Amino acid sequence: MLDYLDGLKTTPAYILEEDKLRKNCELLASVGEKSSTKVLLALKGFAFSRAMKIVGEYLQGCTCSGLWEAKFAKEFMDKEIHTYSPAFKDDEMDEIINLSHHLVFNSLNQFEKFKEKAKEKSLGIRCNVEFSLAPKELYNPCGRYSRLGIRAKDLEDTNLEGLSGLHFHALCEESADALEAVLRAFENRFSPWIRKVKWVNFGGGHHITKKGYDVQKLIDICKKFSDKYGVQVYLEPGEAVGWQSGNLVASVIDIVENEKQIVILDTSSEAHMPDTIIMPYTSEVKNARILATRENEKISDLKKGEFAYWLTGNTCLAGDVMGEYAFDKKLNIGDKVVFLDQIHYTIVKNTTFNGVRLPNLMFLNSKNELEMVREFSYENYSKRN
Question: Which residues in the chain land under pLDDT 70?
């Protein structure tokens, strides 16, 4: 039961649960301790200001994708800050250098351009291993024509003086087996340079906190690699930190009929759950079963005594649909609908498309007390348009 729902006055709202967050962080910290690996939070997947100090109790710091994430990491956690961008801008670089402990460059052009200015920092380059098991091409950073990272053949006969580390990222919600395969490709292509650096960052996309993940295999992989090359290994999970630690709560605004019962909610798949469209996947809903995806792909049949509803968003986008669900009880206007596991890759991607209200950010602490972290208003829309 989600006891906090009775006291929730305003929706939509993301609600992060402290106990579940700590459970994830404890597992990640255990991986780091047992493998002598440093584990960082990738802010691109999970950036919740109220959670940062808690995450900082367990992990070594943050990986950032540019100036604003680096500033966020400094303000809310203030531990190690590793910053990588596909391309750093001149007018931001001084501040990024000042904030960061590690800087990772995406190209040899940028490494040459900034290495003297940033020489007091630990400098790395991103490697394109030209191999990935990413489940969708949109998320494949090693695909053909990829702009992300440097190929091994482009490092030959290159002056890499000042280089301290190598970084690769080729996973997306994947297993330790996938990491093993990617790491094999990385070693095959980049072994001459691995032996010359102090650290190697295995990137993100590790689904470490998902049930069934082979944690011991990950520990063994990291430790074996570190011992073989004498380097410090880094992992930078984002989604795994926030995995199943919070939900998005919406309210039923209206119910209309067009061959089926269609529920209009005060949230939006387009604006508030973008990965359900991009990835795509169908979110689980509390006390409901998925009958069909948003593309009307049938998943299961309606059972006797159940009530079927299309759950939809409150924007003018025709495709702002979450899917069809079976409920044990009839839905009524004013009822709350809870989309499960909607903390990672949601808050960080939210938009005010169509002028829809951004969901409030809330925190359920270990005493089962619901805290308002951030309440959004019209000014959040007007100031960005």
Answer: 1-2
